[in-house]
Amino acid sequence: MTTARAGIVAVAGEALVDIVPAPVDGYHELVPGGSPANTAVGLARLGVPVRMLARLADDPLGRRLRAHLARNGVDLSHVVAAAEPSSMALVEVDEQGVASYDFRVAGTADWQWTAAELAGALDGPVVAVHTGSLATTTPPGAAVLRDLVRRAAARATVSYDPNCRPLLMGDREDVLAGVHELVGLVDVVKVSSEDLEWLLPGMSPADVLDDWVARGAALVAVTLGADGVLAATAGGLRTRLPGRPVHVVDTVGAGDTFSAALLAGLHDAGLLGVDARPALRAIGPDVLHEVLDGAVRAAAITCSRRGADPPTAAELAAAH
Predict the structure, then answer these.
(1) Please, what is the average pLDDT of the chain?
(2) Whether 257 contacts 310, CB under 8 Å
(3) Which fold has domain 8-318?
(4) pLDDT at residue number 162
């Protein structure tokens, strides 16, 4: 762990348990997961002060999630003690290490947000809020988190990762309308090419970049798996960075790690916070390259390890 830097990033969304293949054939193991929770852990390991906004069950899985987040230095003072059970995701990994997910989420803790539970979510020196994934599409709590984004946009940088899960998100056109609504409210968007193949079939990543920046985002990054990342800014920059060669064990948590490292890089550059919004929109090419390169390196490290295991700042520096 590195020395924490000033300014809190609040991460809102699901913290669930992944059921993943174990090293011994025919066995599985339970590991902490959930896209927002993975991003929170990634930020904490990179030395960024991070507050988790989650609903954690008081069951064996929920206690395991709480211990994992606390052990990694994530602030749990705004976590809700939920009466509902924990969510689970059954993970399959193909021969190329690419993960797919089958969820057990009916009536579970992550989706039951009330406005009162998030009333103090932005208290203190919060410079950024990150959210996305199932928590922004699963009722009834999705509407509450979307309202949090609207409130946060007036006082902090807002980051968003659609992290699409077609099996659970419902009608594609409805999801796309919701994604476009959030893109128009937030500052930073990370989206994968896989997400875009479902959300906007037939539309190139480059065209999506142009469209989403035009909708209001300051920075949009499209991750391309092994092929790296495409990015665009409100200031007119367009850039592409290649991927880092790595032996892929699995891709679990790679996109979440990218989001964490992207935000950590912007944090280091002093580009988070409402007062920094003009500077973020005008980010220069050298700073953008450095931030994106760190995110690509971090994601590659996660791909080289089993499960959602993002790097520490020391590990990221060593992989420069």
Answers:
(1) 93
(2) yes
(3) UDP-N-acetylmuramoyl-L-alanine:D-glutamate ligase (3.40.1190)
(4) 96
pLDDT score for 150: 97
Closest CA to 198 of 166, 221, 224, 229: 166
Q: Which residue has the tokens 């480059």?
A: 206
Task: Tell me if 259 sits within 8 A of 42, measured CB to CB.
Answer: yes
Phi (first) and psi of residue 123, to 5 degrees:
-65, 150
Burial of 177 (0-12, 13-18, 19+ CB in 10 A): exposed
pLDDT score of 192 more than 90: yes
Closest CA to 72 of 99, 104, 101, 49: 49
pLDDT of 6 higher than 80:
no
Nearest to 16 by CA among 69, 68, 62: 62
* Confidence band, pLDDT 50/70/90 cuts, at residue 57: very high
Q: Which helix (H) or strand (E) holds 62?
A: helix 60-71
Which pLDDT band holds residue 303 (cuts at 50, 70, 90)? very high
User: 21 near 250, Cβ under 8 Å?
Assistant: no
Q: What is the DSSP string of 127-154?
A: EEEEEEGGGGTSTTHHHHHHHHHHHHTT
Return the ∠ at Cα 135 (arms to 281 and 101), rounded to 5°: 110
How far is it, in rounded angstroms, from Cα 252 to Cα 1?
22
**CA dist 164 → 3, 18, 272, 304 (Å):** 33, 17, 25, 23
Identify the residue whose tokens are 């220069």: 284
Q: How far apart are CA 214 and CA 184, in angstroms?
A: 9
- Is residue 47 a contact partner of residue 1, using CB atoms and an 8 Å limit? yes
